[in-house]
Amino acid sequence: MKNITNSFFNFKAFFLIAILLVTTSCGKDFFKPADVKDVPVNIKDRVAKNMKEGRGIKLFGKDETGGVFQFASSNPLWRVSLEVLDFIPILNASYSGGILITDWYDEGDKNESIKITVKFLSNEIRADALDISVYKKDCKAYESCQTESVTGKISEELKIAILQKATKLKKEDLAKKN
Fold it and tell me: Could you give the CA distance from residue 169 to residue 171 in angstroms, rounded to a whole number?
């Protein structure tokens, strides 16, 4: 019992010394009071001033910002994808998550249906900006359905249709701006 209490007190002493060292090592300049006239009242003005002066937190030496995000209404890939897939009910559309998932769709044949997932990997209009997956569900009997991923023609045709329409839409938007 004596060993446990001694080690507990040793831990407390170590912890107190560590806190004391950390708080006193900050120095007098760290806690220098700021003059009221030099500190903007508005938070946005303070953030802008700190950024201009190069203050802030940089983890691991990186000076990079996050990705560039546009509003969904100004992103041609997003707008065109919704337009191309408008014949299928959308189950999940998350612009911030960069994904569109349709519900199961069949063209009158209740035994066979498809589901499409579009993942947006970039806001730029290019071939590697989209990852389209198509799933096919076959139901021979009412209870037994099998689902499989379909590769090839459908996903490639959807990708080409989306990219072509997005390119055309972007050209039209640029022409309107000029």
Answer: 5
